[in-house]
Amino acid sequence: MTRQVAVVTGAAGGFGSAIVKSLLDVGYAVAATDVDAAALEQLGRELGCPDSLRGFVMDVTDSASVDAASAAIVERMGVNITVLVNNAGVIGRGYCTAEKSGELARRVFDVNLNGAFNATAVFSRHMARLKYGRIINIASVAGIWGAAGGSAYAASKAGLIKASESWARELGPLNISVTAIAPGICKTKMLNQFVDRQMVEQSDDAIVKSIVPVGRWGLPEDIAEVVTFLATCKTNYLNATVIPLDGGMRVGTL
């Protein structure tokens, strides 16, 4: 095949921009998609506008938008779409008894879960024709443990984990592996919406060291490193796997 194309959703965010850069570094042509056109332009400038990077405005919650972006990617970058990173996501902090909690939950599910369904349905068709592909879903440890004040977020990520396992069964015979990464608490702009600001400011002190064995919060580059490993992994036997990427947070320090 000619140069392989990786599609990244939510590409202009903290995780997304790090993932885009990492995939470019290992030789992929990257279709960076995001609902925010201005943020995509800024990402291109920050990365030096390489020829192997193209930005596409795409709303993962709108299947017509995903179809249109897919057609544009094929037209501008070719049909060798072999990697999809379902990274687009929102947190939406709110307790179940809070006013408008249902409205908030619908938005979170629409982006985090339905968005991944829309993108996977469209871009897996290209991989099926090639009989090769890697689909990597960015979930969360909240989808494994739950999260007080983030029940919709946790439920959407739990759904994404189970969707990943189901897609792995469906697409495995076509040489398309599907995996998920479940990050712990990572330093991004989104973190400030969910974690007490004082906790973030003290993240290099006793608080973080008491709950994360490696003694620090995760960084977008940590997630990008594992995404790139999964994208470039030659064996399709790594399939239906969920990788908790939390610095050992799940086992504590005792």
Automatic annotation (TrEMBL):
Single annotated GO MF: oxidoreductase activity
Keyword annotations from UniProtKB, A to Z: Oxidoreductase
A Pfam family recorded for this sequence: adh_short
Domain Ketoreductase positions: 4-184
The keyword Ribosomal protein appears for this protein: no
InterPro entries, alphabetized: KR_dom, NAD(P)-bd_dom_sf, SDR_fam
Top-rank lineage group of the source organism: Bacteria
EC numbers: 1.1.1.-
Family: Belongs to the short-chain dehydrogenases/reductases (SDR) family.
Name of the protein in question: SDR family NAD(P)-dependent oxidoreductase
